[in-house]
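Take a look at the protein record below and tell me what you see:
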Amino acid sequence: MSIYSFTTRKPNGESVDLGKYKDQVVLFVNTASECGFTPQYGDLQNLYEAYKEQGLVILGFPCNQFGGQEPGTATEVEAFCSLNFGVTFPTFEKVEVKGPNADPIFRYLTEQTGEEIKWNFTKILVDRQGKVVKQYDSSVKPLEIGPDIEKLLG
């Protein structure tokens, strides 16, 4: 099993096979629009623009599990991200990232890191072969992950 075994949904409900990201470095992020870390959307977009041509993709998953800080629909979140932060990296439907109703991809990711997600804007880095490399907590700024991404992009 790898991340490529999973499917998810875009905000419009369209199914997405994560196998489409095979051979790319993937950064999964659970996001929230009303969080103290929400400005990280801008840094995530900068990271995406800096490395997307080399094979980085950032996947944003809105989550309302932490402090109710993502109350809108997935479509509203997508519009908020685009309008306020110029986000062009893929975003998906709202999910839960821990507990009994956790989305299967996040259950898999946290099993691989051995760490549960504690708050919004936790970031999980996956290499080109689909292997989970590292989990970063909310306080780690996206641009601080740049050197780890560069190593994987090699």
About this structure: The mean pLDDT is 96. Helices lie at 40-51, 74-85, 104-113, 146-153. DSSP finds four helices and six strands in the chain.
